[in-house]
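Study this chain:
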Amino acid sequence: MELEVLDMDLTVCTLASVGDFDPAVDFFFMGKTDKEISLVCRREDVPEHTTRREDGWKGFRIRGVLDFSLIGILARISGLLSEGGISIFALSTYLTDYILVREKDFERALALLSEHGYRILRQA
């Protein structure tokens, strides 16, 4: 399986209102429930007004389209990283899964996954 490294510094934050964010940026993930509005975006795109903010994340995505019938892909990656003492923040879209790791653990996470047969692709 191939993992594509995202060449960007990411922030995870919460917002008081969806209107606090400009969706014209090229990369973000927003989740809204009855309890919160969460946002993942490039560090430089974080809106001025956040209610909570955590900088220092890096990420990768599973390359290709993951069919909904596939089982255990995210579980295997998260399990390997958990065994290595590495915490994750996982996101899923219609097409694939994204895994965020603290910047300080990122290269170690990629090395661990590579040791277990994952092919790491870095953007040129």
Q: What stands out?
A: Helices lie at 73-83, 106-115. The chain has one domain: 2-121.
